[in-house]
Amino acid sequence: MKWQKVSRRTFLKSVGAVTAGAAMGGFPAIIRGAPKEILIGAVHPLTGLVAEAGQMSVWGLELAVDHVNKAGGIKSMGGARLRLLVEDSESKNEVGAMAAEKLIRRQIACLTGAFQSGVTMAVSKVADRYQMPYVIDISVADAITKQGFQYTFRIFPNLSKLIGTGIKGIMGVTADRPIKRAVVIHISEFTAKASFNIFYPMSEKMGAPWEIVKKITYPELAVSVASEVSHAKALKPDALFVNCRMRDAIMLVQEMYKQRFDVDGVFGIVASGLADPSYHKQGKLSDYSFNVTPWHDEVNPFAREVGREYEARFKKPFNMNGSHSYDAILVIADALERAGTTDKDALRDALRATKLVKKTSIGGPIEFDEKGDNIGAGAGLMQLQGGKSRIVYPSEFATARVVYPVPKWSERG
Amino acid sequence: MLYLQALVNGILMGGVYATMALGLSLIFGVLRIINLAHGNLMVIGMYLSYWLFSLFGIDPYLSLFGTVCLLFFLGFLIQRYVLNPIIDAPEEMSVLITLGLGIIIQNVLLMAFGPDYYTVDTSYKLSSIMFMGVSIDVAKILTFGASIVIAAVFLSFLQWTELGRAIRAASNNRGAATLMGINVKKIYCIAFAIGAATAGVAGSCVSTFIPTSQGAGILFTMTSFVIVIIGGVGNYVGALAGGLLIGIVEELGAVLISGSMKQVLSFGLLIVILLFRPQGLLGREGEE
User: Fold this and answer.
1) What mean pLDDT value characterizes chain A?
2) Which terminus has fewer CB within 10 Å in chain B: N or C?
3) Which residues pair with A243 in a beta bridge?
4) Given CB atoms, is A258 within the 8 Å cutoff of chain B?
């Protein structure tokens, strides 16, 4: 057989014909049959001081996306699958805002994130400017939902609600031995300061029995809190109200132990450091400390099941980060299902009409008020017992009996 | 009693600060390199101590010999391949490069160990001596001791060894040292390596009472800079004195004024020193 020389022109012609034919007939059919993909953008701190918490949130988001997809995706949209795009906020407001813009340019249907209130505020502004539905999984500052943003919704309780629950909880668990003298120690940082600015007047309004004898603060980059602890010890308080990040939380209890400073209880007022797994691993040092925080609902079988899967897959405890981020995806999927479209306004309206009962976080069903805050958002007073964070208040969510006053350092072996 | 406790806390923290600052002082003094990765090198030391302790049960004060070797080697490589090529560039180039280096180290650690915080649970981690109602932290005393030993070793090394003299010569006048037959580039590598090794020692020491995490570098770098400038650049006794001064001012200030004023006080002190004694407390005239 003799090979005929194929001229360049003939070659191009035949390739063109095949490609055009395929384009008209074959390939589009396949594309039409495949389920559509819906992109969800998330901004979380993956580097910087709170990177650990950010990572735990992203895992919650990933797990929920997998669950939604496994259950058949968004059925009203032909089983469209969700895909998560994550951007690092680097714990910085301006980086978070840029990350949000970047995600919006990639044609996402909805935004979530961003953990730190400052970053969330920046992301909210961007979301509102682009009219992009934004479901905040975690962020506490009251101010976020007071800006009149139309596209922002928040699953997490705001600070006032959290602290109100906390004060009620502290008064509840210390009813038999009321706290009379208390010292406040907190990191000099926005959320901590905002928390105590709500805590002081609210304690008074709620008739709390304690007198705050001293307010001690220390800088964010402190390498030691020895003298702060010495100062508190000299005032002989019954209890400490604290707000720390993780490094200083560990240093605080270490110093209390070394200086043999015993109190009836250490209460974290929405202290992220005390809610963190690295802190929980401190054994006798961290045990028995309290913290007011949103949590996952350990009594609810669905939340327990999700929690077990999360822990098996990521080798980290399922806590408020995992659960609230998980719920954010459920809320978004539920709204997409009802909206049947990724049109921004339709999705916003669907989010506004949310009533989600099946979820993993503590509190009532997720419904949003006119500002976008979750009416059902709840919190618990937690106590660390045997390295595990247990809910001791309110009683309907409680998973352990409270230990108060807490054992002295010398009694902890 | 409270003030006495704060004073004791301050002296102990001062020793810790001095340990942190020694390596930086050498690098700054000899190489004129503003090493913004100093704190990150310390953090590498912390991680090494943590892992050697949790895997093999080796105490940080023993494992610091391993840390020294590894960081010496790492420091040598950094100077040889990253900093020597820009030896003739303006000083601010080293700022950019070491800043980048610090970010790289931090992110490599983040990738390797995640964002978790680790604590080295030695038997003496929580030990303190109660003396007349004042508690004295054992781990910090050990670190203080280490800083005195390092400073002494440094001083004798620079004063009495051939290599030490070569380092001083290179630091005083690079051109002249080269003419005298000193291989300045090699000397620089050794000096940076020693500085890095010292940062490693400091990291090993503080790992017993400061939780280890990838983000701690900036904290240590900032504190060390203040101390080095206050004490006098390249002056090891000055670094000790500067560390003590900052430690005492911060801890007493925390009790007398407010905890959140700590850094205001130390940086305030820095500005005062820069205004009235720019060569540092123990630095010689014309060294600034």
Assistant:
1) 89
2) N
3) A186
4) yes
pLDDT digits (tens, 9 = 90+) for A9-68: 555 555 455 444 444 444 444 444 445 899 999 999 998 777 888 999 999 999 999 999
Residue B128, pLDDT score: 87
* Choice between A170 and B266, residue whose per-residue pLDDT is larger: A170
Contact B127 A258 (CB under 8 A): yes
Alpha-carbon span A279 to A284, nearest angstrom: 11
Q: Is B100's pLDDT higher than 70?
A: yes
Count of Cβ atoms closer than 10 Å to residue A93 Cβ = 19
Question: Which element (helix H / strand E) includes A383?
Answer: strand A380-385
Q: Give the Cα separation of A303 and A299 in Å (integer).
A: 8
Q: Residue A185: closest CA among chain B residues belongs to which residue?
A: B259
Rounded distance, CA A345 to CA A131, Å?
8
**A265 secondary structure, DSSP code:** E
Cis preceding linkage at A114, omega within 30: yes
Chain A CA closest to residue B109: A47
Of A359, A410, A335, A383, give the one whose Cα is nearest residue A76: A335
Q: Decide if A308 touches B, using CB distance below 8 A.
A: no
Give the C-alpha separation, A265 to A178, whole Å.
Answer: 11
CA atoms within 13 A on the CB side of B108: 11
Over 50: is that where the pLDDT of A2 sits?
no
pTM of the model: 0.77
In the predicted structure, residue A371 carries a pLDDT above the cut 80: yes
B 202-241 residues with CB < 8 A to A: 209-211, 213-216, 218-220, 222-223
Q: Which of A46, A55, A234 sits opposite B1 (nearest CB)?
A: A234
Averaged pLDDT score across all residues of chain B: 86
The ipTM, to two decimals, is: 0.82
**pLDDT, tens only, B44-61:** 999 999 999 999 989 988
Q: Which residues contact B44 (CB under 8 A, 6 or more apart)?
A: B70, B71, B74, B105, B109, B200, B203
Contact A73, A115 (CB under 8 A): no
Tell me: pLDDT of B180 over 90: no
Percent of chain B's residues with pLDDT above 90:
20
**A300 and chain B: CB distance < 8 Å anywhere?**
no
Q: Which residues pair with A37 in a beta bridge?
A: A81
Cβ–Cβ under 8 Å, residues B255 and A231:
yes
Alpha helices by DSSP H, listed for A92-225, are 93-105, 117-129, 159-173, 190-205
CA nearest A245 in B: which residue? B117
List CB contacts (< 8 A) between B132 and chain A. Answer: none
